[in-house]
Amino acid sequence: MNVLSIENISKTLNDAPLFEGVTFGLEEGEHVGLIGDNGCGKSTLLHIISGKLESDTGKVNCANKAQILLLDQNVVFGKEDTVLDYLYKGTGPRFALLKQYHALLEEAADPKAQKQLANLTDRMEKDGTWNIESDFNSILGELGLHDVMDKPFVKLSGGEQKKIAIARILCEKPTILLLDEPTNHLDIDTIEWLQKYLSTSNMTIIVVTHDRYFLNVVCKKIIELDDHQIFFHPGNYNDYVIRRSKRLADNQKQQDRLKTILRREVEWSLRGPQARTGKDSGRQDRLVSMKEEQRNVLDVAQTQFTSQSRRLGKKILEVKHISKSFNHKNLFTDFSFSFTKGMKIGIIGGNGSGKSTLLDILTGNLESDSGSVDIGINTVFGYYDQKGRKLNSKKTVLEYVEDISERITLAPGQVVTASKFLETFSFPSSLHRLPISTLSGGQKRRLYLISRLMINPNFLVLDEPTNDLDVKTMENLESYIADFDGCTLIVSHDRAFLDHTCENLLILHPNEIEQFEGDYSSWKIEENNRETIRANEEKKEREKQAKKEQAKADNQHRKNKKKGLSFKEKKEFEGLEKEIAKSEQYIAQLEESFSSVEENEMGSLMERTAKYNQEKEHLESLEERWMELGELAEQNS
Length: 637
Description:
The chain is an alpha/beta fold. Helices cover about 45% and strands about 20% of the residues. A hairpin with a 2-residue loop joins β15 (about 405-410) and β16. The chain is globular.
């Protein structure tokens, strides 16, 4: 069933068209990703669909009784709001019923109001409105937030605020859910939770996000905003990449054909007045039109650079036994690490685990509680931090970057102007003369990122660099980092970005930092394997305890029937200790092999895992038999 119909929507901002003639429809339960360059109008289109903004032309039609709700990029709340206050400021249909219910309670003495109240109560019972607070609490619990209802909203971290906003909109249960960059400020565990929740939801969903793994799992159709129009791509993000590449290649063929025709037309125009009779006056107009139309599609779509950094010294950065705590909470303890040339390291961990704090300590902007940080004399950080992103300069965009450098050397023989470097990171020439004060918060953060790259560092330190980047710009940054010959240290919740840029990981757990050789996906496979093993061990431990209790009960029954061990049982009991020791040694060897995902003499990771589980079961049966015979042996003494 069609639940949403968009007909001929157009919108112009600042005398420039964002999009024109946008038309599409969505079926019930359809999940769609909306992507495009920064500034192309993705958020504006979501606001038009939600009714928060009017279009210049066209209309938005919804199925009867369909409810549309939008999760904006920024969480809006009152300065005095608690989490509970924020919850009840929801705008969905269930909250509307609650507000109507409380309004009628104030008029309960009126017989007419009493009748309305009775009818409304039935509706609220049917819609589950009475459960809205418990639904909200349940989702918060799954997101790791407990007992927060009375906390001031303003004192929560950005990640916690985003989690609460997500919990509220999900418990409102709209028919059509619009999400604008929902993964910003979330840790990876929360992103994966949301990804799983949405992928199994029967809501109709349109999501704007730069998270390619998220798009791949959640969305079965991609709508691309490009050059003021939309393009439809059935399938997930991987399918979209293939289809878009083909479209751009086809467009390039058309541009090449246009170039050939244009060359012939230019040759004709140069032949002299005798060739340009009145009947061919239209050719001059066509010539002008073709010149305006001609452009290199692939150059526009896929600008990529390599990068070159200044020379590093022998000592780059060494940390020894550093620890840090805040408000009596240990973030990490006794961490040591030595950075070598070319290292590309990702840092992951939950919200509040200390990722940004670790970056500040490593770059010398914050002291650790103990230990030492030794920065090499030739080490120059390009630190994209949390504090320096609020640019207050009175200069224009181009003036700001040209003050750093008018030309940027990316590789031997490859030099680009400051304006070209700006265009690579989604600053078109139309923005170059604008004062920085007129830029959005996201644009200022992106400009600050560019300034960190332009100072020619040999050690890049990036704290959540992808939040304000579109996919194309992110791919350009990935290309830049891949060719960067200095060190790179990146905090990010974007799993695809981590996979494409980092070869090692530092994982922040409570009070410790785990070191891992490999990319994010490799670590996740190993982590899932460890979690499976832990879950199996917990299950088997419970079963083991239950069997022990049962064995005790059975032995009590046999106590008066049999005393001591038979000759055969004595021999068996003596041999069990050797068998148990041998089994424990084999298990230890398998556990040690899990440090590598590569195949070895013990088999592949999957084969080793199967052997591990099988041997653990064997060991448990040996131990159970040993305890049973041990109890009988005690009866002989």
